[in-house]
Amino acid sequence: MMKNQNTPNDSLFCGDTPYDLIKEGCCGGGVYPLDQGGCCEGKTYHLDQQGCCGGVIYDVGIYDQHIFGCCADREAYDMSIQGCCGGRVYKLDFYSCCGGQHVYDTHAYGCCGTQPYFLDTYACCGGQHRYNPDTQGCCDNQVYFKDTYSCCKGVILDKGENCPDI
User: Is 148 exposed, middle or buried (0-12, 13-18, 19+ CB in 10 A)?
Assistant: First the structure.
């Protein structure tokens, strides 16, 4: 039995077509060049023009001021008008992302550290600590209770204690 002279001993086949594993890929039974294409759940796409996200091929790059991306490898989105937070796509004009996990309405909520907070009820101390300004204060990035403590020059003092000269 003679070997086929056109295919080396270690050839791989994509369907009935032999291909070079170093230079080519196999996708949905067809061969494509690795330096130019990719495979998205059995469908080929052009690397310089498209991307694959959750099995959906989408256009990449800038088209009419729109930049496209992939959110959590599941959903393609328009980065010029949408964001991705914790695997969820949201509209940038009404919402924001807090701590990489929480989508919140910017008209009613703020972000403190990694947690959203209701703007009508809470404030943020030092970018990390949420507090109720009716009963609590913020002193040098630390939260204190106003009924038992006070703040003087960045130092929390017992209520009634004189402020030291610092």
Answer: exposed
